[in-house]
Design brief:
By secondary structure, the protein is mainly alpha-helical. It has seven helices and four strands.
Length: 256
């Protein structure tokens, strides 16, 4: 208004009515009714704020004594008919037998029993110090009570059973070893085999000796020397074998 009054204009002489701006209508969604209907449908009753109206408790339904204690089921008739077990203690209603008196003199009887009875043996003790400290002898380990038992020195049954099992296993092992040795035992040559073996060795020696005799007189090359040494070693080995077989009439050979 101050800006308008500052300017001089003929239009300002007449007062003007202020025009208020017209607000546009508020936007309302077309889905509003369906959303409102779904919200009312899914809303649980008394979900957040509790029930609208709560019934007040009646003054007649007050808490009574022993009302919350667990109640046992009613007793059956079969249990009532069963007899109660006999008690080892007297009942509360039982009365003791009164008026029974004894003429026995307990003082004299006790004195006679003490006099005529065998004397009480003192408990064996031992002293291990000069001050005279006494200890029971039975619990000290000095009494040879274990060696006087009936089963003292007797081998327990589990040890005898274990020893028998060990002996049986040892016998089985020895039997298997003997059987294995029998399979690999020495075999004795018969007289026919011995004679045939001796003849074969002599025949081989003659063949080797014949080859040795066929060697040239002058042996000047290395192969000739090697061949001569080979023949000599074969002849010595055959002679040794023949000598062993001729000396020993009984010969054993190992089974392969």
């Amino acid at each position: 208004m101050t800006a308008q009054c500052a300017q001089e204009s003929i239009y300002n002489l007449l007062p003007r009515l202020e025009e208020k701006p017209v607000k546009p209508p508020r936007y309302i969604s077309t889905f509003r009714p369906s959303v409102k209907r779904e919200a009312e449908k899914n809303k649980a009753q008394c979900k957040t704020m509790g029930p609208a109206k709560v019934a007040l408790p009646s003054p007649k339904d007050f808490l009574q004594k022993h009302s919350k204690e667990p109640k046992l089921p009613p007793r059956k008739k079969e249990q009532d008919s069963q007899k109660l077990p006999e008690l080892s203690v007297p009942r509360r209603t039982d009365h003791p037998v009164m008026g029974i008196q004894s003429k026995k003199n307990f003082i004299n009887s006790n004195a006679i029993a003490a006099i005529t009875g065998p004397p009480k043996k003192p408990q064996p003790i031992y002293v291990d110090r000069r001050q005279g400290d006494k200890y029971l002898l039975e619990t000290s380990g000095l009494v040879p009570k274990y060696i006087k038992k009936k089963d003292y020195g007797v081998t327990p049954k589990y040890l005898t059973r274990r020893n028998e099992e060990m002996e049986r296993a040892q016998k089985e092992y020895e039997a298997s070893i003997l059987e294995h040795l029998k399979k690999r035992a020495m075999k004795q040559l018969s007289d026919e085999e011995r004679t045939s073996l001796l003849q074969g060795l002599k025949k081989n020696w003659e063949e080797v000796y014949r080859e040795f005799q066929c060697l040239p007189v002058e042996i000047d090359t290395i192969p000739k020397k090697l061949y001569k040494g080979k023949l000599e070693s074969r002849m010595k080995q055959l002679e040794h074998d023949i000598d062993v077989i001729e000396k020993h009439k009984v010969i054993y050979i190992a089974n392969e």
